[in-house]
Amino acid sequence: MTNVSHPAPQFSPGEAVDLATRHFGIAGSVTPLDSERDQNFKLAAPDRSLWILKIVNASEPLAESEFQTALFDHLERNSPDLAVPHLRKTTQGASLAHARGTGGEDHAVRMVSWLAGQPLAESQTTPALLESLGGALGRLDRALQGFIHPGALRSFDWDIRQAGRARQRLHHIGDDRDRALVERFLDHFDAEVAPRLPALRAQVIHNDANDWNVLVDPEKPERVAGLIDFGDALHSALIAEVAVACAYAILDAEDPIGAAARLAAGFHAEYPLREEELDLLFDLIAMRLVTSVTLSAARKERTADNPYLSISEAPAWRLLNRLGRMNRRFATAILRHACGFEAAPGARAVTGWIAANRAHLAPILDRHPATLAKALVPYGDPRNPMTVTSAAQQPDKATAWWDAYCAEHGIALGIGPWGEARTVYTSDIFESRFVEGARRANHLGLDLFMPAGTRLYTPLAATVRSVEIEEDPLGYGCLVALEHAPPGCPPFITLWGHMAHEAGRRLKAGDRLEAGALVGEMGLPAENGGWAPHLHFQISTDTSLAARDILGVGEERYLDVWKELFPDAAELAGIPPETFQQSGRSRPEIVAARKASLLPNLSISYSEPIKFVRGEGAWLIDDRGRAYLDCFNNVCHLGHAHPDVVDAIARQAAKLNTNTRYLHDAIVTYAERLTATLPAGLSVASFACSGSEANSLMLRMARTHTGRSEAIVLDWAYHGTTQELIDLSPYKYKRKGGKGRPAHVFEAAIPDSYRAPAEWPDDEHAKRFAESVAEQIADMARQGRAPGLFLAESIPSVAGQVFLPDGYLKKVYAMVRAAGGICVADEVQVGFGRVGSHWWAFETQGVTPDVVTMGKPIGNGHPMAAVVTTAEIAASFNNGMEYFNTFGGNPVSCAAGLAVLDVIERDGLRRNAQEIGCYLMARFKALQDRYEIVGDVRGQGLFLGIELVEDRKSKAPATALARRINDGVRARGVLIGTEGPHDNVLKMRPPMIFSRANADHLVGVLDETLAAVLAQEA
Ligand SMILES: Cc1ncc(COP(=O)(O)O)c(C=O)c1O
Fold first, then answer.
1. Which of 829, 834, 887, 893 to mutate to test the pocket of ligand 1 (most atoms within 8 A of CB)?
2. pTM (2 decimals)?
3. Distance 855 CA to ligand 1 centre (A)
4. Contacts of 330 (CB under 8 A, 6+ apart)
5. Per-residue pLDDT tens digits for 979-1002
6. Is any ligand 1 atom within 6 A of the Cβ of residue 568?
């Protein structure tokens, strides 16, 4: 290569004019330009075109001169539009001319066009300009991709692959700290970077986009106008092009890595970089600076104490020092992210995996955090007393404020969200190392505030990575790092900060923890870094970081990057997203709006109404992210928002929804499938939209078939909301607003064995209660009437989850039929396998009704209902009047109904109902053994009741207690109801997917509530 100590050529301007005229055919005027090792003249041609005449140092091997002209030739041929100098051929058509120097030595001479523009060194560096520079280099290198020349295979100090040679110049650096800094970069380069360089893409690059070689368009200062001086071009690692340009462009930048990221992104947009290239960029930028400062130090020694050299190197040293303080993984994450790559490899797969598997994670707290009443801790408000006292390191005051807030608002779990901007981080350790003058203030973990001593469990199997005690004020205190590597997910780390020191004594690196295993407890201020007790829970998708290097708080500017590196741990901790963001109207606003614009007869459950915003399986999630276990709403038979039903509805709705006057497959398929679940004979189906409509249709059939309107119903029954059904519902006509029993309706006693007269032998309950029906028939007869129908729920529900005594319906049906009436089973609540042992609850009584009405669970929430009857009744109903129901039996409803039947069968939900029902009954009986007020427990499958009494002997209903227990259960996050004539029966109808864990949760809450309410009572 050129010998830098070899003197530059010494041609006079006159000789230069002569060379230009003779070899290149331009007789112009020349102006000498600065050059360290060659001689350059600016040449103004008569036609006003501008050129540069370069007389190359005689020591430069010809191959290198030829390489440069070949490079220009290549670009000229393949990318003539690139903003680079264009080679002017000699009058002989050659790329190079030759000139003999005064000493007789041969100089290569070439001419290139002059590029207009202002050097970047004299321009304002903006992000847009950096991106433009990256883009210009990207376009250049893309054009050079296929170009090679023997002269490109050069070896010199400015080749980034040779950056390790700087170690030989280390001794020229006088300052110990500076030398140690450079040495650290060199050590890392030798160990980690140099071995990876040979595997990277290599090609011919410009290799010297310093700020004097980059020209900016003076008209558009955000645009690079050209790149000049290809004197350092060579075949090297492609990424070196970006690294070299960055090393100059980011000097003294407020945010050097941000600036480098813009430049890299500009390059990437034109010539996509690879992850493995970006992974080395930070170090290669540093190594360009290392090369520069060490060469200068060496030269400075030779040129004595040249103050100019130290001034020109000062920005490089400043930058090197700043880079030295940065975490290279974070810097690399910023660079990767700017080019659209994951901040850390696998980061997106980790968050994707957690999202897909969140339902299967072990709860991090004894009680699942989703189920707890939550509120955000006010660290986002700088003036809040808790924030102020926390920042002032007065944890006891902060704790007292928070405890009082929780007590007042019934909050069990405080949440400090990811990303929140906080003013509590007051110490120096929170100064940004990336952005000059900025602080790290945005929280990158998830804080869970609970009392000290709260036990914390790992949501996934883990290996303990590290356990340490951080003593800094406002540090982590006891800090545990776990590594998780679930199958199908890249490994990731969880960080557990502010723990009690007990975990530090119990755990050691390498320990295995199963999912759900204890990690430790929340620490007291004395051991948790001086905070109100809480857990700082954080994910790191970069597993190479040591626990202390994981950024718990980050710069706002790079939240996008931190989000991938340290994603929000809320999902992993089981915190529903609604905790962080509310939408729609507040609860009081909705109550007020209901009052203003809805029928006042609508009732609202609970004195403090709940606003639910989402349903998922057995859970209902309220507007503040609290999940309630739904043991009450039997409409969502398969669980809320069951994906199969949602999908079936969506797909059919997107295709066609019409009515029964057109042919469609779904309605006949559904009728066949539905009737197949019923005993033979019940073979004709018709469809409606609600249980009331089904019962109304049934009434029309019964009246048409029997010619009678007289009906026998059970006391306290409910069959629907239309007037004719209110007339058949003692639960309505006997209570407030009711007009009493109409003359055509006859009431039989509720066949409630628990409240049967004590003197009745158990095995006579069916007979004795059936006598009440016989009495009604006799009463009718006395009035010259006869029953048109007997209507009963197969398990009377609003009457208090009453299980009919064995043989009851057999006796009743026989009497009613003998009197000419038909028998109707209202299965609106209890049907579709809820009892587990059978599809239909009437089957448990060994009878077959003449008509069955169905609703509620039939479409898992889609408004739909059905009536199934015999061919005979259907025939007599066919009296010439059409049955048309606009929506009944439409294709979308039938698709929903089919999906429900499919899922019940496919997922064995009847068996589940039976198993979990038996389990619940056993656990309820255990409660009955412990609590005197539990008078009776009854249930079949997932239709269950607990009757509360003040005294087991008198069976006086414990109505007030039942209400308090219902409220207490709700306060603990479980939904049940109360029912029965005395409102003293706890009613439970959980979805068919109810699991054993759900059952344990329900029983645990019932137990806790019973104990709490009775303790208050005592
Ligand atoms: C036993 C029974 N039948 C009929 C109905 C009426 O159903 P819908 O409210 O769908 O009209 C109900 C509703 O609660 C019911 O419980």
1. 829
2. 0.88
3. 7
4. 434, 551, 561, 565
5. 999 999 999 999 999 999 999 999
6. no
